[in-house]
Amino acid sequence: MDRDMEILVVDDFSTMRKIVKDLLIELGFSKFDEADDGSSAWPMIQSANYGLIVSDWNMPQMTGIELLKRVRSHSELKETPFLLITAEAQRSQIVEADEAGVDGYIVKPFTAETLHKKIHNIFEQRRARQNG
């Protein structure tokens, strides 16, 4: 896992973006961009090379699941690791996210350890697929 990769944190609440960034810093990451919803994140994703997108599910303008679907439908971006964060753990949401191609899913509130495990699992699964 590359701790120097650029990470995009997408959440409509600045406090939650700060919490996520603080947890990522605690895990040794240091390069971040922020967006306050999917519609502001999308042009950033198209013009940068993010190693990971961490996005809230429920946001105005464009939700996290809509952003995920847009990323997955774009040929040059579809392999970008994507972690969804939500306050709800409904089975239907988990299924929808999985079908849309999410790499990981975290329910709020969560700890740095939970975030670390999810990120580690995302990159382990990707490495296993590549070595397939």
TrEMBL record:
In terms of Gene3D superfamilies, this protein maps to: 3.40.50.2300
Which segments constitute the Response regulatory domain? 6-123
Instruction: Mention any Pfam family matching this sequence.
Output: Response_reg
* Keywords, ordered alphabetically: Phosphoprotein
Q: Does the keyword Phosphoprotein apply?
A: yes
Establish whether keyword Nucleotidyltransferase is in the entry. Answer: no
Protein's recorded name? Response regulator
Locate the 4-aspartylphosphate modifications and list their residues.
Answer: D56
What's the source species for this entry?
Thiomicrorhabdus lithotrophica
